[in-house]
Amino acid sequence: MSSFLPSWIRTMFRVFWAMPLVTKLCTFWLTTIILAAIFADFIPKLADPSYQGFLFGTDVTNDGQSLHHWLGTDNNSRDILSRLIYGTRVSLTVAVTAVAFGTFFGGLLGSFVGYVRGRREAAIMASIDVILAFPALVLLLTVVTLLGKRNLLVISLVVGVLAIPYYARVSRANALAVSRREFVAAARAIGTKDRTILWREVIPNVMPTVLAFALVSAAVTVVLEGTLAFLGLSVQPPTPSWGVMINAARADLRINIWPVIWPSLMLVFTVYSLNNVGDWFRIRTAHKTAAL
Amino acid sequence: MLAARLVRLVATILVVSFVTFMMVNLLPGDPINALVPPEAQNNQEFVEQLREEFGLNDPMMVRYANWLGDAVTGDLGKSVITSQPVAGEIWRRLPITAELALVAIGFSLFIAIPLGTLSAYKQGKRVDQSISAAAQVSLSIPNFVLGLLLIYVFAMRLQWLPATGWTRLTESVSGNIKSVILPALSLALAEVAVYTRVVRSDMISTLQEDYILSARAKGLKDRFILFRHALRPSSLTLITVVGLNVGALIGGTVVIETLFAIPGLGKRLLDAVFQRDFLMIQGITVFVAVVYVTINTLVDIIYMLVDPRIRKKV
């Protein structure tokens, strides 16, 4: 039966079945929130995340769980479940942008300098060390403030650009190791051009490790966005984000802790899942590389 | 060797200060806008006068040189909002943040070293697996989420500790201890996870050394071997990781000081951020980066002093 499916889907299933139970659950959770974020507008009967029913006498603020609001309402009587689902978009957009920027620019840059070595490597790594000399959150705060505008695009771009040095460092370390392997020496011995070696031999062997790092770094990014939002420096209201929700609800912590608990759980589950799946891939690629 | 390390440190500090200065001054958003009250925005003469006063009309390199010259003598300029000297603000608030960070490091080492050691001793057993699982979970809890939960449980429900605010050590020792516990715990949890892993993996490789075997053969108690023979050689990576983690810790204090309303450096930075107080942002950011870079250099030097093998190799 399985032969009817395209091979990449079969590979995905094989990888999935090889995972331990917890990692399977984590993958399932990540898939669920990604789908929920993409199709949020099409979920039937999902409340408008900004609808403040108490203004029209239809809902109560800080309401508990009910059939109408599965996770209750926040201190503006908005539906918490709906805000969680729409908030997923913010976290995932920032994470995906950071991963894309990091993998593409950081991964290529690191592979390049790790392979060519010499003066170019020294210069690029020195400038990367300068950026890494700043505590990440402090640098992020400063840049976000100075840019003034705080919408999803700006936040994603800033986090994305700041992710590049971290990826560059990881991929350089791996490129250094890969460049010392026999197959690179062999390619060089038969007169392959450096550029070809870089694209055919080095980068394909560096990328698996970079991608495993990408999952773990996505977890860091989700926390960073949550932190910025918590400080009031990420996307601005009315756009829902988990950090914004926690920040808004903490004023009423004493009366109603649930509006803090739900977005916190979303953050913790998502970060845990990314870490767990990332760790699993890292161990797996480490075994594969060792066997190379 | 030491001299080379110090020269590199000074060079890094210069570059870091230059980058911060450029960042604050080149990014869009004229700093003058923060100074001029909205009703005076159209008063060109007044705006010009202010620009002149803050030296905003000079070329960038001249301004950097002036700023750096003053900074070396301990003058980081004045806050454009409150006109307090930036350096004075940093000195006043540094002890609070330093205490918070040190207590957090203390808490995390106090928990992580025994856990990591136990984990290595029982490698692969159920205890080890539970500790690893717990570490992975605690790495996934953002510090502000943990802080809020701690406030809810220990300050609001049980009312054992204050939810917010800070009592200085000079005012009341017990008050100070009470106000540092919850914020330090919130900062410590993620560090505990990292340090436990480091101690575990270093300890596992130390325990395979021959001298551990001979200590065992002598009939020494396991506990004695673990903490007296194995811990010291296993703590080298730990020192480095603690140093590297200071960066994350400083970032963490911004969040935790805001959450617990602690008048430290991080809270001041965030206030400056909201007021677009550019000299204050610049001063604190440079100061923090310099502290971070210096700590890492110190860690490298300590590392060399502790382990003679590295001294020879480098």
How is the biggest beta sheet of chain A arranged? none
Rg of chain A, alpha carbons: 22 Å
| Quaternary organisation | heterodimer
CATH superfamily of the domain at 89-273 in chain B: MetI-like
Q: Give me the CATH fold name of the domain at 89-273 in chain B.
A: MetI-like fold
Under the CATH scheme, which architecture of chain A would be assigned?
Orthogonal Bundle
What is the largest interface, and how many residues per chain? A-B, 39 and 44 residues
Named CATH architecture of the domain at 89-273 in chain B: Orthogonal Bundle
- From the 3D structure, determine the CATH topology of chain A: MetI-like fold
Helix content of chain B: over 70%
Helix content of chain A: over 70%
Mean pLDDT of chain A: 85
Task: Please state the CA-atom Rg of chain B, rounded to the nearest Å.
Answer: 24 Å
Helix and strand sequence of chain A: HHHHHHHHHH
Report the portion of residues of chain A in β strands.
under 5%
Number of strands of chain A: 0
In a few lines, what is going on in this structure?
The complex is a heterodimer of chains A (292) and B (314). Chain A is mainly alpha-helical and 292 residues long.
Can you describe this structure?
The complex is a heterodimer of chains A (292) and B (314). Chain A has helices at residues 7-18, 21-38, 80-116, 118-132, 136-147, 152-179, 182-189, 194-230, 242-249, 258-291. Chain A is mainly alpha-helical. The model of chain A has no long low-confidence stretch (mean pLDDT 85). In chain B, helix 1 (2-26) packs antiparallel against helix 13, helix 11 packs across helix 12 (265-275) and helix 12 runs antiparallel to helix 13 (278-306). Helix content of chain B is 77%, strand content 0%. The radius of gyration of chain B is 24 Å and the shape is globular. Chain B has helices spanning 2-26, 32-35, 44-53, 60-72, 86-121, 126-139, 143-157, 173-206, 210-217, 222-234, 236-259, 265-275, 278-306, 308-313. Chain B contains 14 helices and no strands. With 314 residues, chain B is an all-alpha fold.
